[in-house]
From TrEMBL:
InterPro entries the record matches: AA-Vitamin_Transporters (IPR050638), EamA_dom (IPR000620), EmrE-like (IPR037185)
SUPFAM superfamilies assigned to the protein according to its UniProt record, in alphabetical order: Multidrug resistance efflux transporter EmrE
Keywords of this entry: Membrane, Transmembrane, Transmembrane helix
Annotated Gene Ontology cellular component terms: membrane
EamA domain segment(s): 7-140, 151-287
Bilayer topology annotation: Multi-pass membrane protein
Family: Belongs to the EamA transporter family.
Protein name, as recorded: EamA/RhaT family transporter
Membrane-crossing residue ranges in chain numbering: 40-58, 67-83, 89-113, 125-145, 151-169, 189-209, 215-242, 249-266
Principal subcellular localization: membrane
Subcellular location field: Membrane
Highest taxon listed in the record's lineage: Bacteria
UniProt cross-references to Pfam families, sorted A to Z: EamA
Length: 308
C-alpha cells in the first residue's frame, strides 16, 4: 500500500513539474497561434499518440459510463482550458494563476458530497490551504498591486470549479477499473469533440506554413506529448491511487515550478517575495497533504465510532 502511494506521489509531482513548464512553451507559440489553436493541435496530437500506444477499441458496459467520459472531456479538456485562456485576455495572468490554484478547495467540497470514501477534511487541510494561497499570492503578484477585472476573474473562478469537477469525474472513472491509458484516450476524444464548436467561434485557422519552424514543432510536441498525452495519464493514475482531494493539492506547486523555470529559461528575476512565497506554498502543501492531519482524522473516526 505504501509502495502504491509513493507511485501516486511521484506521478503527481511529475505531472505538476511538466504542467508548470508549459507556460514557456505556450508563450512562445502564442506569437503565431491563437489559444484555441494551440489547445486543438496539442490534444489531437496527444490522442493520436495514445491511440498508437494502444491501438484497440475501448468498449464500455453502458451509457452511464460513456456519459461520465463525455463529461470529463467537456470539463477537463475543453471547458477548463477555454475558460483559462479567455480569462487571460481580460485580466492579468497573476490573477488567473492565483484563482485557478484554489481548485483543490472546490475539489475537497465536491468530494465531500459526491465521493463518500474520501476522508473528512481536517483543520490542518484548511490551514495549509490558506498558507499555500498566501504563498501563491506572493509569487504571482510579487509586490504589484492586484488589479481586479470582474469578467476575467469570474472566468478564472469558473475554471477552478470546472477543474474540481474534472477531478471528481476522474476519480469516478478510476472506479470503472479500465486501463488508465484507454480512459485518458477516451476523455481526450470527447474533449476534442466538444472543442470543435469553439474552433468556429474563435476563428480557427490551419495555416500549415507555421509548422515549418523547428521551434514551433518542438513546443507543440512538448505540449502534445508531454503536457497532454503523458501528464493526463500520470494525473489520472495519481487520482486513482491518492484520491481526488490529496492529488489536487499538488496544484499548489504549479506557480512554484513556473517561477523556477522562468528564472532559468527566461532569466526572470527571483525576488525575496518569490522565495517567501515558495516557502509558504511548500509548507501549505505539507500541511494539507501530509501526515500532520492524520491525528485529527483518527480522533474524528474515534468519536464517530463511540457515538454509534
Amino acid at each position: 500500500m505504501a509502495h502504491s502511494a509513493t507511485k501516486g506521489h511521484i506521478a503527481a509531482l511529475l505531472t505538476v513539474f511538466i504542467w508548470g513548464t508549459t507556460f514557456i512553451s505556450t508563450k512562445v507559440l502564442l506569437a503565431d497561434f491563437q489559444p484555441v489553436e494551440i489547445l486543438f493541435f496539442r490534444f489531437v496530437m496527444a490522442y493520436t499518440v495514445l491511440w498508437c500506444c494502444c491501438p484497440r477499441w475501448f468498449h464500455m458496459s453502458g451509457w452511464r459510463e460513456e456519459a461520465t467520459f463525455a463529461a470529463a472531456g467537456f470539463t477537463g479538456i475543453c471547458l477548463y482550458y477555454l475558460l483559462e485562456n479567455i480569462a487571460l485576455t481580460y485580466t492579468m495572468a497573476s490573477n488567473v494563476g492565483v484563482i485557478c490554484s484554489v481548485s483543490p478547495f472546490f475539489t475537497a467540497m465536491l468530494a465531500a458530497v459526491f465521493i463518500k470514501s474520501e476522508k473528512p477534511l481536517t483543520p490542518q487541510f484548511f490551514i495549509g490551504f490558506f498558507l499555500a494561497i498566501a504563498g501563491i499570492c506572493l509569487i504571482s503578484f510579487n509586490g504589484s498591486a492586484m488589479e481586479l477585472n470582474p469578467l476575467g476573474d469570474m472566468l478564472a473562478v469558473l475554471a477552478a470549479v470546472v477543474w474540481a469537477c474534472y477531478s471528481i469525474l476522474i476519480k469516478k472513472i478510476s472506479r470503472f477499473d479500465y486501463p488508465v491509458l484507454l480512459t485518458t484516450r477516451r476523455t481526450f476524444f470527447y474533449g476534442i469533440l466538444w472543442m470543435i464548436p469553439a474552433l468556429y467561434l474563435f476563428d480557427f485557422q490551419w495555416a500549415p506554413a507555421r509548422f515549418a519552424d523547428g521551434i514551433v514543432i518542438f513546443n507543440l510536441l512538448f505540449l502534445g506529448l508531454g503536457a497532454s498525452a503523458l501528464c493526463f495519464v500520470t494525473w489520472s493514475s495519481a487520482v486513482a491511487i491518492l484520491g481526488a482531494v490529496k492529488t489536487s493539492v499538488y496544484i499548489y506547486l504549479l506557480p512554484v515550478v513556473t517561477v523556477a523555470t522562468s528564472a532559468v529559461v527566461l532569466r526572470e528575476p527571483v525576488t525575496t517575495m518569490t522565495v517567501a512565497g515558495t516557502a509558504l506554498t511548500l509548507l501549505g502543501l505539507a500541511l494539507s497533504e501530509g501526515k500532520l492531519g492524520r491525528a485529527a482524522h483518527d480522533k474524528i473516526e474515534h468519536v464517530h465510532a463511540k457515538s454509534e
